[in-house]
Amino acid sequence: MDSYATVKTQTVEADNGIxxxxxxxxxxxxAQPLVLLQHFRGNLxxxxxxxxxxxxxxxxxxxxxxxxVGATTGTAPNTVxxxxxxxxxxxxxxxxxxxxxxxxxxxSFVAQEIALIRPNLxxxxxxxxxxxxxxxxIHGWSPDVVAAVGGQTASAEGYVSIFFTKPExxxxxxxxxxxxxxxxxxxxxxxxxxxxxxxxxxxxIPNHALLQRVQGITQPVFVANGDSDPMIxxxxxxxxxxxxxxxxxxxxxxxxxxxxxxxxEQFAADVAAFLDR
Length: 277
Known about the structure:
Blueprint lengths: L9 E4 L5 E7 L8 E4 L11 H7 L5 E4 L15 H14 L5 E6 L1 H12 L4 E7 L14 H7 L6 H8 L7 H8 L11 H14 L17 E6 L7 H10 L3 E6 L6 H4 L1 H13 L1
Parallel strand pairs: 3-4, 3-5, 5-6, 6-7, 7-8
Antiparallel strand pairs: 1-2, 2-4
Helix pairs in contact: 1-10, 2-3, 4-5
């Protein structure tokens, strides 16, 4: 099997006129394909190859750039609902009729919307560093988080400070930033970053009536986070899981926003056990 660090980037044109860049790893099997939905200002290169390789050991795993992100064409939308519609268009363009979803951070918001908009498309859902729409306290990030990852120029140092609790836990950052030696994805542009942050901010406008929406997600859901995530605090993991009809929760120790990269072997094992249950 190829490694995510070397697998080629492919493209597919959807009915919405957008050409999506994606990477496809693992073998078709009895398991549903697992589609990964990326975090704020991330592109294809910002998935940890060790995590993706481990996930793909037992199933087909697909990563992609949504509209306006990386090498995908078009302009990035500024609402989570529009991002979900675009993701559905991509999945449909691949000819897939049922998938499992793994959404990370912003991608976890998009995964929730996909399940609400097109429930028959989704079998099971993994939500990493997630929060429900309208919850109190998620309307924008704290100043230190914005300073670290929200500026016009992103830095590896800022990424590490938010994704990991301490330097010795940040070995995964080296895999994300340094493993791929050729065929890099196009950088995420500032207009795309701005649109994504607007979408995240809209998602966080306090509105407790919107919390009822997630009760429409009837698929089994695995909700996970690190115990020290400064971007999406662990209490929102518990809030979301409590609202969902069928949820399993896990909090990973001594870990921040990038817990799934830091604990990639355990997280991948937990995901596989959940999806195969």
